[in-house]
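go over both lines:
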Amino acid sequence: MSQPVELSLEQQFNIRSFETQVQQMSQEQAQDFLIKLYEQMIVRENMYKSFIKHQWGLDGGSWLAQ
């Protein structure tokens, strides 16, 4: 994966919009936002791991403990 990931125009626009919103936040708001964002990243990572385990048959037959 030595090639850079290309962003669509919509994604680039969303980044610029996000940048504007962040610049208007107070330091406390930005810190709270970063904590929540990090938590979401961890949850997403756990979901990916669970999906991969299920796809590869490594989950023992159960899926997301329904």
